[in-house]
Amino acid sequence: MAASTTPDRSRRSERSRVAILTATRDLIGEVGYAKLTIEAIAARAGVGKQTIYRWWPSKGAVVFDSLLALSERPDGGGIELPDTGDIDADLKAVLRATAAEFSDPGFEAPIRALNTEIINDPELAAVYREKMERPIREAKLRRLRGAREAGQLAADADLDLLADMLYAPLTQRWLLRSGPLDDDFADALVDAALRAFRP
Amino acid sequence: MAASTTPDRSRRSERSRVAILTATRDLIGEVGYAKLTIEAIAARAGVGKQTIYRWWPSKGAVVFDSLLALSERPDGGGIELPDTGDIDADLKAVLRATAAEFSDPGFEAPIRALNTEIINDPELAAVYREKMERPIREAKLRRLRGAREAGQLAADADLDLLADMLYAPLTQRWLLRSGPLDDDFADALVDAALRAFRP
Questions:
Q1: Per-residue confidence at B2, pLDDT binned at 50, 70, 90?
Q2: Residue A168 in contact with partner chain B when CB distance is under 8 A
Q3: Does domain A2-60 have CATH number 1.10.10.60?
Q4: Calpha distance B79→A85 (Å, rounded)
C-alpha cells in the first residue's frame, strides 16, 4: 500500500540529502570551490546527477545549503552562545573557538569560497544575511542583551556596534590572512571591546 | 643621435602607462573585473595589446598596478593622515571619507574586485599587504602613536588592535553590504574605539 512506503522514501531522501551536503563540504575542502562540479558531488555522494538538479538549481545553491546545514542543531533548536553569567569569559570562549575554526583549512575553505561569492553577488549576500548571518547575529545580540541587563555593559551600549567590533577584526584577519588567529588575539579583542562598552 | 631620443621615448612610455592604468580602472567600474579583458584595456588606452603584455604578465597584475597608482602621490611623498592635534576629529574625518569612498560605485568596484582575488590567493594577498596595505597601515599607526605621545590614548594602548577595531567593521560592512556606510556609523566607531584605549 502506498501509505506504508512513504516513511521509507522519506528516510531515503533524507539520507541522500545528508550525503550530498557532506560530499559538497568535503570536496570544497579538497579541490576548492572553483573546481567543484555537480558530477563530482554526485559521484562522492553515491547519487545520480539528476537527484541533485531536482533539489538545487545550481552549484552555488548546494554549497550554500551544505554550509547552512552546519549551523542546524540536531534537536532543531536555535543557536545560542554560552551563558555562564560571565560575559567576559563567555565571549573569550566563543571568539577563541571561532579563531580556531578559521585556522582549520577543512572548516574554513568552504566558508571562504562562500564569502568570495557573497562579496560579488548582492542577491546571494541578502540570502546569506537572512538565512545564515541573522540567526547567529541574533544569538550574539541576545547574549549581549543579557549582559547589559545584568549590568555588565553600559545601559546605553550600542550592541550592534559592539558585535561588529568583536567579530569584524577576526573576520578580516581571517579573510585577508593579515595576522595570527590565536587565543591572545581573541582575548585582546574581547578585553578592548568590553572596555568600550562597560558601565 | 640615440641619446637625444631617450627623453621623448620615456615621456611616451609614461603617457602610455598612465593611459593603460586609467583605462583599467575605468573599465572595471563599467564592466566589472570578471568581464575585463586586455583587449578592451588596449583599445580604451589607445595602445597595442603587446605594449600591455610587455609590461604586465597578466590581467591581475595590471589591475593591481592600476589601484596601486591611486595611492601614489604626485610629489612622490608618503601617505599621511590629517593631524590637527585632535585625534577624535582627525579619525572621524578619515573614517567618514573612507565610508564615502566605499559608497561610490566607481571607486569601490575595482577595490572590491581586488579583495575577491586576494581572499583566494595567498601570494597576491602578501604582495597587496606589502605594497598597498603596509604604507597605509604605517600612516595610521604614526597618527595613533602621535596621539598616544600627546596623552590622548593610554600609554599601553595596543595601536595595532586599535587600528583593526577602527577599520575592520567599516571594511566588513562594505564588503558584505551588511549596513549603511554613513557619517553616523563612522563617528560611532571612532567614539567606541577611542573609549577602549583612552588614558
A1: very low
A2: yes
A3: yes
A4: 46
